[in-house]
From TrEMBL:
Origin: domain of life: Eukaryota
InterPro entries the UniProt entry points to: INTS15 (IPR027844)
Identification of the protein by name: Integrator complex subunit 15 isoform X1
Region (Disordered): 384-420
Pfam families in alphabetical order: INTS15
Biased composition (Low complexity): 403-416
Amino acid sequence: MCDMRQSLLRRDALSAAKEVLYHLDIYLSGQVQNSPSPSVDTTTLELVEEFILHRRMSALQELQLLEIMCSCFQEQSRDAVRQLIFSALFTLQGNQADESRMALLGKLVSMAIAVGRVPILECAATWLQRSHPVYCRRLARVLVDDYCSLLPGSMVPTLNNLSSSCPPFCCQFITAVTTLYDLSTEELTLPVQLLQMVVSWIRDHPRLVLITLLNTPPSSSQPIGSLDLTPLAGLVRWCVKAPLAYRRDGKQGLANGTTETELEAGPLFSELHLSVLQVLLLLPGILREKGLLGRLALLQPDQLTSLISDLSGDLEELNPLHSDTQTHIQLTLDRLAQALQVSMAAGALLCSREDLRALCSRLPHNNLLQLVMSGPVQQSGFYPHIHTPPLGYSPRPGPLGPHPSSHSPHTSFPSQPFLPSMAFPFRPSH
């Protein structure tokens, strides 16, 4: 190995990096073939750091290196070898090379999206599943910047087919961006182009957000400090917080008090909310098949606590006396109630009724939320199938929701019916 290092030192930066990649491929192919527990030794990792991550390259050389890496992953037919190569290159080691790793990783995944290199995206999905959320958010930020900021309008045509060509990456990417954009500030409110893409992915492939859960053996556990198994908690947060977040961040109001961004994003969040409820209804069968029904909470109580705390803070920033603001508040609480009811019925939220009442005690009164906190949750499988209404369909809630005379209609964030033809026993709270 010492002789190899001396040989690499005599080469130019691109040639040396290419040689290390070639060595890595041959070395790990042999490991997979001959060893029951293939791994990368320390000396090889040192070569990767010295000749790929630390050597200075011109912009042209770096582009050529990315093309070489794309070809390397594309031509390697064995997934196990590809995953090991990717791990050797981009597993964070807690040293100075990690910044270079993250920079190169962002450029490689961005290029893989642009040129449709699915093997790289599959490796990136595994990396996202195993890495700390801080670094997952950094990668997500790079991709969103590339496809929403630097190249506005390019996201839809470029990523449109990803949901069918590489579902694992899409699932992990959605999970990462829901942790990146938590709608807590204007800067952390997701771009409309990104929202459009997420909505179209989930609308066309509802099981997409469950891919990681489906592919994870029941006995295995997520690495400590990793992303959630599904993006459901983050998607619920988006849908519930959206009416208040856009109301809070709106700068330039229209004649009816709504904002231009709100008019564009409102129907998208409404469609996303309905899609999330439909996905939740798929869970009982999946969890039962894996032996996890009643044992695995995909929406954690601490996530619910954080969401309700954020809602309380957002409500304090708004003027509750404004009639249009009241419409937004009631829509937010309606969506929260719907998400809670379906999540508990589907086994995604394991929360007692008493804990739920305590958590929601700081929120304003809402008829639907009161029903959820008062009445028993129906057993899984009792709910009828929810049919997606046309995009322009904006029904008002029935007797379970606020009285129509209480609030004026609001077309920007159309309300969705809770669950058609469902009767809930009502016990007044004292």
